[in-house]
Amino acid sequence: MPELPEVETIVRGIRPFLLGRRLVRISLSHHDVLRGVSRRRLIRDLTGATVREVFRRAKHAVLDLGERRLVVQPGMTGSLVVHGRPLTAEEARYAVLRALLDDGRELVYRDVRRLGTLLLLDQRGWQRYNDSIGPEPLDEGFTPERLGLALQRSRQSVKKVIMDQRHLAGVGNIYANEALFAAGIDPSKPAVRLTEDDHRRLHAEIRRILLAAITSSGTTFRDYRTGTGEPGNFQLELHVYGREGEPCRQCGTRLTGTHAIDARISVFCHRCQS
Ligand SMILES: [Zn+2]
Asked: Ligand 1 (ion): which residues have CB within 5 A?
Protein backbone atom coordinates (compact mmCIF):
# COMPACT_ATOMS: atom_id res chain seq x y z
CA MET A 1 0.00 0.00 0.00
CA PRO A 2 1.35 3.45 -0.78
CA GLU A 3 2.66 5.07 2.40
CA LEU A 4 3.18 8.70 3.37
CA PRO A 5 5.91 9.55 0.81
CA GLU A 6 4.02 7.98 -2.09
CA VAL A 7 0.74 9.71 -1.28
CA GLU A 8 2.56 13.01 -0.62
CA THR A 9 4.16 12.67 -4.07
CA ILE A 10 0.78 11.93 -5.68
CA VAL A 11 -0.78 14.96 -3.98
CA ARG A 12 2.04 17.30 -5.04
CA GLY A 13 1.69 16.00 -8.60
CA ILE A 14 -2.08 16.45 -8.96
CA ARG A 15 -2.60 19.56 -6.80
CA PRO A 16 -1.60 22.20 -9.39
CA PHE A 17 -4.06 20.72 -11.92
CA LEU A 18 -6.97 20.52 -9.49
CA LEU A 19 -6.93 23.73 -7.43
CA GLY A 20 -9.94 25.90 -8.29
CA ARG A 21 -11.20 23.46 -10.92
CA ARG A 22 -14.79 22.33 -11.11
CA LEU A 23 -15.71 18.66 -11.50
CA VAL A 24 -18.14 18.62 -14.40
CA ARG A 25 -18.75 14.94 -15.02
CA ILE A 26 -18.24 11.98 -12.72
CA SER A 27 -18.26 8.30 -13.54
CA LEU A 28 -17.69 5.33 -11.27
CA SER A 29 -17.14 1.87 -12.74
CA HIS A 30 -17.45 -0.11 -9.48
CA HIS A 31 -18.98 0.80 -6.17
CA ASP A 32 -17.07 -1.76 -4.08
CA VAL A 33 -14.40 0.88 -3.34
CA LEU A 34 -16.94 3.19 -1.66
CA ARG A 35 -17.18 3.36 2.14
CA GLY A 36 -20.15 4.98 3.82
CA VAL A 37 -21.47 6.57 0.65
CA SER A 38 -23.65 5.25 -2.18
CA ARG A 39 -22.73 5.56 -5.84
CA ARG A 40 -25.70 7.85 -6.39
CA ARG A 41 -24.78 10.22 -3.60
CA LEU A 42 -21.13 10.28 -4.55
CA ILE A 43 -21.93 11.24 -8.13
CA ARG A 44 -24.54 13.78 -7.06
CA ASP A 45 -22.27 15.46 -4.50
CA LEU A 46 -19.14 15.51 -6.66
CA THR A 47 -20.78 16.82 -9.82
CA GLY A 48 -20.36 20.58 -10.02
CA ALA A 49 -18.14 20.77 -6.92
CA THR A 50 -15.07 23.00 -6.94
CA VAL A 51 -11.74 21.78 -5.61
CA ARG A 52 -10.69 24.20 -2.84
CA GLU A 53 -7.61 22.34 -1.64
CA VAL A 54 -5.74 19.09 -2.16
CA PHE A 55 -3.67 17.66 0.66
CA ARG A 56 -2.50 14.47 2.32
CA ARG A 57 -3.51 13.02 5.68
CA ALA A 58 -1.70 9.81 6.73
CA LYS A 59 -1.72 7.58 3.63
CA HIS A 60 -4.74 9.26 2.06
CA ALA A 61 -5.18 11.98 -0.56
CA VAL A 62 -7.89 14.48 0.35
CA LEU A 63 -9.83 16.77 -1.99
CA ASP A 64 -11.48 19.60 -0.10
CA LEU A 65 -14.68 20.40 -1.98
CA GLY A 66 -16.11 22.94 0.50
CA GLU A 67 -18.98 21.16 2.23
CA ARG A 68 -17.47 17.74 1.71
CA ARG A 69 -14.13 16.08 1.47
CA LEU A 70 -13.28 13.23 -0.85
CA VAL A 71 -10.73 10.96 0.81
CA VAL A 72 -8.88 8.58 -1.48
CA GLN A 73 -6.90 5.76 0.05
CA PRO A 74 -5.02 4.19 -2.85
CA GLY A 75 -4.68 0.45 -2.41
CA MET A 76 -1.69 -1.65 -3.40
CA THR A 77 -2.69 -1.39 -7.06
CA GLY A 78 -4.20 2.11 -6.95
CA SER A 79 -3.04 5.34 -8.59
CA LEU A 80 -4.43 8.85 -8.80
CA VAL A 81 -3.41 10.74 -11.93
CA VAL A 82 -4.55 13.85 -13.80
CA HIS A 83 -4.57 13.21 -17.53
CA GLY A 84 -4.33 16.00 -20.09
CA ARG A 85 -5.13 13.71 -23.00
CA PRO A 86 -7.66 10.96 -23.71
CA LEU A 87 -7.02 7.77 -21.74
CA THR A 88 -5.52 4.78 -23.52
CA ALA A 89 -7.65 1.60 -23.56
CA GLU A 90 -5.35 0.12 -20.90
CA GLU A 91 -5.70 3.21 -18.66
CA ALA A 92 -9.47 3.28 -19.09
CA ARG A 93 -9.82 -0.43 -18.35
CA TYR A 94 -9.03 -0.15 -14.65
CA ALA A 95 -10.25 3.40 -14.11
CA VAL A 96 -12.60 3.22 -11.13
CA LEU A 97 -13.43 6.92 -10.62
CA ARG A 98 -13.18 9.43 -13.46
CA ALA A 99 -13.79 13.12 -12.87
CA LEU A 100 -13.80 15.39 -15.91
CA LEU A 101 -12.54 18.88 -15.01
CA ASP A 102 -13.84 22.14 -16.44
CA ASP A 103 -10.60 22.63 -18.41
CA GLY A 104 -10.94 19.29 -20.20
CA ARG A 105 -8.40 17.43 -18.08
CA GLU A 106 -9.46 14.34 -16.23
CA LEU A 107 -8.73 13.11 -12.70
CA VAL A 108 -8.63 9.32 -12.68
CA TYR A 109 -8.48 6.92 -9.77
CA ARG A 110 -7.28 3.67 -11.26
CA ASP A 111 -7.13 0.48 -9.23
CA VAL A 112 -6.48 -2.89 -10.88
CA ARG A 113 -7.55 -5.03 -7.91
CA ARG A 114 -9.75 -2.39 -6.28
CA LEU A 115 -8.06 -2.66 -2.88
CA GLY A 116 -8.30 1.08 -2.29
CA THR A 117 -11.20 2.98 -0.76
CA LEU A 118 -13.06 6.23 -1.37
CA LEU A 119 -14.81 8.17 1.41
CA LEU A 120 -16.97 11.23 1.04
CA LEU A 121 -17.14 13.02 4.38
CA ASP A 122 -19.12 15.99 5.67
CA GLN A 123 -17.59 18.23 8.38
CA ARG A 124 -18.54 15.89 11.21
CA GLY A 125 -17.38 12.80 9.36
CA TRP A 126 -14.08 14.52 8.63
CA GLN A 127 -13.62 15.46 12.28
CA ARG A 128 -14.18 11.88 13.34
CA TYR A 129 -11.86 10.52 10.68
CA ASN A 130 -9.14 13.07 11.44
CA ASP A 131 -9.35 12.47 15.21
CA SER A 132 -8.96 8.72 14.75
CA ILE A 133 -5.49 9.17 13.21
CA GLY A 134 -2.33 10.04 15.12
CA PRO A 135 0.11 12.91 14.53
CA GLU A 136 1.76 13.55 11.19
CA PRO A 137 5.44 12.62 11.54
CA LEU A 138 6.58 15.64 9.51
CA ASP A 139 4.56 18.14 11.58
CA GLU A 140 6.17 20.10 14.40
CA GLY A 141 3.78 18.58 16.91
CA PHE A 142 5.43 15.22 16.43
CA THR A 143 8.30 15.25 18.92
CA PRO A 144 10.57 12.53 20.36
CA GLU A 145 8.56 12.89 23.60
CA ARG A 146 5.27 12.27 21.82
CA LEU A 147 6.70 9.20 20.12
CA GLY A 148 8.14 8.07 23.45
CA LEU A 149 4.72 8.31 25.14
CA ALA A 150 3.13 6.04 22.55
CA LEU A 151 5.97 3.56 22.82
CA GLN A 152 6.03 3.47 26.63
CA ARG A 153 2.31 2.79 26.88
CA SER A 154 2.38 -0.21 24.57
CA ARG A 155 3.00 -3.89 25.16
CA GLN A 156 3.52 -4.44 21.43
CA SER A 157 6.72 -4.62 19.41
CA VAL A 158 8.19 -1.27 18.41
CA LYS A 159 7.48 -2.02 14.75
CA LYS A 160 3.77 -2.58 15.42
CA VAL A 161 3.51 0.66 17.38
CA ILE A 162 5.08 2.89 14.73
CA MET A 163 2.86 1.31 12.04
CA ASP A 164 -0.30 1.79 14.12
CA GLN A 165 -2.08 4.75 12.53
CA ARG A 166 -3.58 5.77 15.88
CA HIS A 167 -0.07 6.48 17.17
CA LEU A 168 1.59 7.78 14.03
CA ALA A 169 0.15 8.69 10.64
CA GLY A 170 1.43 7.41 7.33
CA VAL A 171 4.17 4.92 8.25
CA GLY A 172 3.68 1.45 6.79
CA ASN A 173 5.84 -1.61 6.38
CA ILE A 174 8.51 -0.24 4.06
CA TYR A 175 9.37 2.85 6.09
CA ALA A 176 9.00 1.11 9.46
CA ASN A 177 11.63 -1.43 8.39
CA GLU A 178 13.93 1.29 7.07
CA ALA A 179 13.59 3.61 10.07
CA LEU A 180 14.26 0.80 12.55
CA PHE A 181 17.37 -0.25 10.65
CA ALA A 182 18.66 3.33 10.51
CA ALA A 183 18.00 3.75 14.24
CA GLY A 184 19.69 0.42 15.04
CA ILE A 185 16.59 -0.98 16.77
CA ASP A 186 15.39 -4.59 16.45
CA PRO A 187 11.81 -4.44 15.04
CA SER A 188 10.62 -7.16 17.44
CA LYS A 189 11.83 -5.30 20.56
CA PRO A 190 8.99 -4.56 23.00
CA ALA A 191 8.21 -0.85 22.61
CA VAL A 192 8.20 -0.31 26.38
CA ARG A 193 11.88 -1.32 26.62
CA LEU A 194 13.14 1.48 24.40
CA THR A 195 15.19 4.20 26.09
CA GLU A 196 14.82 7.95 25.70
CA ASP A 197 17.86 7.86 23.47
CA ASP A 198 16.11 5.25 21.29
CA HIS A 199 13.06 7.53 21.06
CA ARG A 200 15.22 10.41 19.86
CA ARG A 201 17.05 8.32 17.27
CA LEU A 202 13.90 6.64 15.97
CA HIS A 203 12.07 9.96 15.78
CA ALA A 204 14.93 11.52 13.80
CA GLU A 205 15.27 8.54 11.44
CA ILE A 206 11.52 8.28 10.74
CA ARG A 207 11.52 11.93 9.67
CA ARG A 208 14.78 11.76 7.74
CA ILE A 209 13.73 8.68 5.76
CA LEU A 210 10.23 9.95 4.97
CA LEU A 211 11.69 13.24 3.70
CA ALA A 212 14.34 11.44 1.62
CA ALA A 213 11.65 9.19 0.14
CA ILE A 214 9.51 12.21 -0.78
CA THR A 215 12.56 13.75 -2.49
CA SER A 216 12.87 10.52 -4.52
CA SER A 217 9.12 10.54 -5.35
CA GLY A 218 8.42 7.43 -3.24
CA THR A 219 9.10 3.72 -3.65
CA THR A 220 7.82 1.76 -6.66
CA PHE A 221 7.85 -2.01 -6.45
CA ARG A 222 4.97 -2.69 -8.80
CA ASP A 223 1.99 -0.46 -9.34
CA TYR A 224 2.64 2.78 -7.51
CA ARG A 225 2.84 5.81 -9.82
CA THR A 226 3.23 9.49 -9.01
CA GLY A 227 0.43 11.99 -9.73
CA THR A 228 1.93 12.49 -13.17
CA GLY A 229 2.15 8.76 -13.92
CA GLU A 230 5.88 8.18 -13.31
CA PRO A 231 7.40 5.49 -11.08
CA GLY A 232 9.18 6.55 -7.86
CA ASN A 233 12.91 6.09 -7.22
CA PHE A 234 13.35 5.39 -3.51
CA GLN A 235 13.48 1.58 -4.09
CA LEU A 236 17.11 2.23 -5.12
CA GLU A 237 17.89 3.66 -1.68
CA LEU A 238 16.31 1.03 0.54
CA HIS A 239 18.66 -0.58 3.06
CA VAL A 240 16.56 -3.51 4.28
CA TYR A 241 13.06 -3.70 2.78
CA GLY A 242 13.10 -6.14 -0.16
CA ARG A 243 16.70 -7.18 0.65
CA GLU A 244 16.12 -10.30 2.77
CA GLY A 245 19.14 -12.64 2.48
CA GLU A 246 21.33 -9.92 0.98
CA PRO A 247 24.33 -8.42 2.79
CA CYS A 248 23.75 -5.56 5.23
CA ARG A 249 25.01 -2.33 3.66
CA GLN A 250 26.61 -1.40 6.97
CA CYS A 251 28.34 -4.61 8.15
CA GLY A 252 27.95 -7.23 5.42
CA THR A 253 25.92 -9.68 7.56
CA ARG A 254 23.09 -11.50 5.74
CA LEU A 255 19.83 -9.66 6.43
CA THR A 256 17.15 -11.66 8.24
CA GLY A 257 13.55 -11.77 7.02
CA THR A 258 10.69 -12.84 9.26
CA HIS A 259 6.90 -12.74 9.28
CA ALA A 260 6.76 -13.50 13.00
CA ILE A 261 6.40 -9.92 14.27
CA ASP A 262 3.23 -8.73 12.54
CA ALA A 263 2.58 -11.21 9.69
CA ARG A 264 4.22 -8.81 7.26
CA ILE A 265 7.80 -9.12 6.15
CA SER A 266 10.26 -7.61 8.59
CA VAL A 267 13.84 -7.39 7.34
CA PHE A 268 16.64 -6.48 9.69
CA CYS A 269 20.32 -6.97 10.51
CA HIS A 270 20.80 -8.93 13.72
CA ARG A 271 24.23 -7.34 14.20
CA CYS A 272 23.34 -3.70 13.58
CA GLN A 273 19.93 -3.78 15.29
CA SER A 274 19.33 -4.72 18.91
ZN1 LIG B 1 24.48 -4.90 9.70
From this structure: 248, 250-251, 253, 269, 271-272
